């Protein structure tokens, strides 16, 4: 399958609530960029909801959507983290963490009841979230001599490229950001300018 150059994520945090037989399931959705953010956000919720019995979560990271993890936090295996993740998969959302905090209401819900509760709470949070589509962008560093400036800037202007960083001297450096599906076209044009060095820096 060809790598898509768009992905869906959420713009900011959102909350949802589901109740069943006295148990309350508070869902919190957060946009994240890195795994290191997960522990901090989960710990923060554990402090806020210190009387809750479970803090279950799932996250999904990366534009290729391959990095994910689930945590049942003491609930029966597969009854909490996986239903949360399945909602993220069905909505095709990435760079997101959803934590569902459960307050036990005194009545056991059974595994099917738990699956439904964690799934529905997650869905409620996502209903309240703003979901947007972003493009996968590449950042390239372009190094060239000052006399090539006009030729390089013509390409920048032609494609409306975003300049992330610039240094103009006898030797000039530009960091350019553009949508992944434009890469061949843009690099092809830049490579025609002699002498020029082009280096891939990052995918964002």
From TrEMBL:
Name the InterPro entries for this protein.
Impact, Impact_N, Impact_N_sf, Ribosomal_Su5_D2-typ_SF, UPF0029_Impact_CS
Q: Indicate the segments forming the Impact N-terminal domain, all copies.
A: 21-126
Superkingdom of the source species: Bacteria
Fetch the PANTHER family from UniProt: IMPACT FAMILY MEMBER YIGZ (PTHR16301:SF20), IMPACT-RELATED (PTHR16301)
Give the similarity note.
Belongs to the IMPACT family.
The protein here is known as YigZ family protein
Q: Which organism is it from?
A: Flectobacillus rivi
């Amino acid at each position: 399958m060809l790598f898509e150059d768009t992905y869906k994520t959420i713009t900011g945090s959102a909350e949802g609530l589901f109740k069943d037989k006295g148990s309350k399931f508070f869902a919190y959705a957060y946009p994240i960029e890195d795994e290191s953010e997960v522990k901090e956000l989960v710990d923060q919720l554990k402090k806020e909801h210190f009387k809750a019995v479970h803090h279950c979560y799932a996250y999904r990271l990366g534009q290729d959507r391959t990095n994910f993890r689930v945590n049942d936090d003491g609930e029966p295996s597969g009854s909490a983290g996986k239903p949360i993740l399945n909602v993220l998969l069905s909505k095709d959302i990435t760079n997101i963490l959803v934590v569902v905090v459960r307050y036990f209401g005194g009545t056991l819900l059974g595994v099917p009841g738990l699956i439904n509760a964690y799934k529905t709470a997650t869905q409620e949070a996502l209903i309240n979230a703003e979901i947007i589509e972003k493009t996968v962008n590449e950042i390239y560093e372009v190094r060239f001599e000052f006399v090539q400036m006009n030729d390089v800037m013509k390409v920048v202007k032609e494609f409306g490229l975003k300049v992330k960083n610039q240094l103009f001297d006898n030797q000039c450096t530009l960091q350019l950001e553009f949508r992944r599906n434009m890469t061949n076209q843009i690099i092809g044009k830049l490579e025609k300018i002699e002498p020029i060095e082009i280096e891939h820096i990052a995918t964002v």
